[in-house]
Specification:
It is built from eight helices and 16 strands. The protein has 249 residues and is of the alpha/beta class.
Length: 249
Amino acid sequence: MMNSMQTNLAAGMAVLLCMALAGGCDDSSRNADPASHHAAKRTDGPLVLAISPELPPYAYMDTNRGATCGIDVDIVKAAAKRLRRPLKIVEMPFDRLIPAVRDLEADFAAGAMTITDGRRHEVEFSIPYAEEGAVFIYHADGPVPTMVRAEGMRVGAVESMTQDFYLTRHGIDPFRYGTIEQALNALRSHKVDTVFYDRSILAEVAKASGGKLAVTPLETRENYGIAVRKDRTDYIEAVNAVIRERRAK
């Protein structure tokens, strides 16, 4: 669940990054246990979106409404509408999203997900709907991290995210956390020296810190997409059509 800071952060970031998507939050058919249903294996019933709701503005929980919101939710909701099917949202950790689609527990997976060749072996991806990049966030009165300097620093990352893999490929073994908020709390309490994550999110965190935190220039560039079952080209086409429509506005 998001705290009030995360909810306010999500609202501000949605203004910056929203692609004129309509629909907003979804407060229906949420289920935290994907093993409790197999709707995705049927051709009738609701479509299933597996999502990690801790990544504003792409996917987050609005605690005031008890609803899952974000750009990713909007895209899949619109695709489900095109397919004339109801949508069921299933929340799970980020590292479970791809396996859920691969194993037909879900029809879609989303949550600021970078399109990679490795993930394409297990799922199909929509066309990109956003371009992001990773940066370091650090204490403004401390040393400025770079990928070279980070080899001698305590670096925090979110487990199984592309930033985690990027650090590993550069010979850095980060302190891994389940969510970005856990990683940021470790930074605030000086358990790590820096955190490596998406620019849009970390830039807002730094802005809200009153000058205590700062971010570096971009270290990476990544394309975000919606993961879709490989066996359903109609689902892929529906998501792509939604993204193209939003780009045209």
